[in-house]
């Protein structure tokens, strides 16, 4: 058989995974009981019919009822054919042999006896859990039956019981032997192979069900992973948008409070900055929420929802971001290196958000008096952005560090490299290099970390 035997590892060296067919259900057990009882009754009736059509007197066995008893007994074990298939096969085979020896007329003329033996062979091949024991049992039954058949051929030759018109190429005896041998071979081996096919079909059905369950579990896991990834993306966007502007508002408000009495004009300018920052924050929040609601742009167009404007964040707006980040004792510079190239939208937005988060951290968690942003275009292969400052971490409780986590996640998803940590000469550095993906620059679709082959983890404290 195609399945490996129990205890024998496959040739590949993998652990043995012999399949065990589950036992019959309650419904199948009830049907087997009805089948065994029905065939037992049919066996008794068949023996009576064989007795009535016999041309001469017949031997009914002990007490005149042995033929009836054997005809019923050979079918009754089929009530348990799927629960104990090998035991049923052995019991039916013994009764089959006994019936043939004790009441030949009922054995030859009662079709139910032949069907019972066939079904016992089929059930053993189809339902036996221990396939090695099933094969051994089959060999024992087959050898016993064919030895009995051969004994009958020898006995017929000795008594010259096979006679005929002798009109064929072979003698009547030889013709009889070949015909009966072929019929019995077809009978026994046919039952075995039919049962083995049923076992194979059941195994294949089980494997298909397992595969379907695994695919369903994978789909659920992928869906869960997609939800988590989307939540992380939303979290990064909200953090970048809110933290930067709220930080700016807090710093300007503190400055306005300190100079309100001594320098009303400076306080007025700080309040103006607060007003502009709050409006910008609200606009960016609206754009972000609008993108989240626009799950299907085509559907929105059909139902009359206007298309959303493209996000304003991008590498081309870094000078404006740097200009608004300065003030209140912090000087921020900007420098661009290399020939500018058109960046994919995903890369451009990520560059902006990385700088925005880095400058926010400088203002909130550092004693720095100056910071510098450098944007490097490395040909058409990559873009690099770096934010450095000259400060030290404040002694006040630090933030949640979600900003650094978000930067690493952004860079990792785009297949880039990130470096976040203190500089050897003092101050802090945030650097990110993002590949431009020249194979599909128009789409702006980022590579996954698996596609890029680049480790997205940060290198803490690495030198430039």
Order of helices and strands: HHHHHHHHHHEHEEHEEH
CATH class designation of the domain at 313-464: Alpha Beta
> Considering the protein shown, what is the CATH homologous superfamily of the domain at 313-464?
Histidine kinase-like ATPase, C-terminal domain
Number of helices: 13
CATH fold label of the domain at 313-464: Heat Shock Protein 90
Q: Biggest sheet, in brief? A: 5 strands, mixed
Tell me the strand percentage band.
5-15%
Mean pLDDT, to the nearest integer, reads 78
Spatial strand arrangement across the major sheet: 1-2-3-5-4
User: Rough shape?
Assistant: rod-shaped
Distance between the termini: 65 Å
Taking pLDDT < 50 over at least 5 consecutive residues as the criterion, the unreliable ranges are 1-16, 307-311, 438-464
| Structural class by helix and strand composition | alpha+beta
Helix content: 55-70%
Architecture per CATH nomenclature, i.e. the level-2 architecture of the domain at 313-464: 2-Layer Sandwich
Radius of gyration: 44 Å
Number of strands: 5
Organism: Kribbella orskensis
Keywords: ATP-binding, Kinase, Membrane, Nucleotide-binding, Phosphoprotein, Transferase, Transmembrane, Transmembrane helix, Two-component regulatory system
Transmembrane segments: 136-153, 173-195
Protein name: histidine kinase
């Amino acid at each position: 058989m195609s399945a490996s035997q129990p205890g024998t590892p496959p040739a590949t060296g993998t652990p043995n995974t012999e399949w065990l067919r589950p036992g019959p259900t309650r419904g199948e057990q009830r049907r087997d009981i009805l089948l065994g009882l029905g065939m037992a009754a049919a066996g008794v009736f068949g023996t009576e019919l064989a007795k009535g059509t016999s041309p001469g007197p017949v031997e009914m066995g002990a007490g005149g009822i042995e033929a009836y008893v054997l005809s019923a007994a050979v079918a009754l074990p089929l009530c348990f054919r799927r629960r104990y298939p090998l035991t049923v096969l052995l019991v039916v085979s013994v009764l089959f042999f006994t019936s043939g020896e004790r009441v030949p007329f009922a054995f030859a003329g009662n079709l139910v006896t032949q069907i019972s033996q066939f079904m016992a062979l089929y059930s053993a091949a189809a339902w036996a859990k221990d396939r090695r024991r099933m094969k051994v049992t089959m060999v024992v039954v087959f050898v016993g039956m064919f030895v009995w058949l051969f004994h009958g051929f020898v006995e017929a030759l000795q008594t010259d019981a096979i006679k005929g018109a002798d009109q064929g190429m072979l003698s009547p005896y030889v013709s009889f032997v070949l015909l009966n041998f072929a019929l019995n071979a077809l009978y026994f081996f046919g039952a075995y192979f039919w049962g083995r096919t049923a076992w194979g079909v059941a195994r294949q059905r089980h494997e298909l069900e397992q595969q379907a369950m695994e695919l369903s579990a994978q789909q659920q896991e992928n869906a869960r992973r997609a939800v988590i990834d989307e939540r992380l993306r939303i979290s990064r966007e909200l953090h970048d948008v809110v933290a930067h502007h709220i930080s700016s508002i807090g710093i300007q408000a503190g400055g306005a409070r300190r100079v309100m009495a001594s320098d009303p004009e400076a306080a007025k300018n700080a309040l103006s900055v607060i007003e502009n920052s709050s409006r910008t924050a609200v606009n960016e929040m609206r754009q972000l929420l609008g993108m989240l609601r626009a799950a299907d742009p085509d559907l929105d167009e059909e139902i009359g929802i206007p298309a959303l404007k493209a996000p304003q964040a991008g590498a081309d707006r870094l000078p404006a971001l740097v200009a608004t980040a300065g003030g209140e004792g912090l000087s921020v510079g900007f420098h661009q290196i290399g020939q500018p190239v058109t960046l994919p939208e995903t890369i451009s937005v990520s560059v902006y958000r990385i700088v925005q988060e880095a400058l926010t951290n400088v203002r909130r968690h550092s004693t720095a008096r100056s910071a510098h942003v450098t944007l490097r275009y490395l040909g058409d292969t990559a873009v690099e952005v770096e934010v450095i400052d000259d400060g030290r971490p404040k002694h006040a409780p630090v933030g949640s560090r979600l900003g650094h986590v978000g930067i690493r996640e952004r860079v990792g998803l785009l297949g880039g490299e990130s470096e976040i940590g203190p500089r050897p000469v003092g101050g802090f550095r945030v650097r990110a290099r993002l590949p431009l993906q020249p194979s599909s620059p128009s789409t702006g679709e980022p590579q996954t970390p698996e596609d890029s082959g680049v480790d997205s983890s940060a290198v803490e404290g690495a030198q430039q």
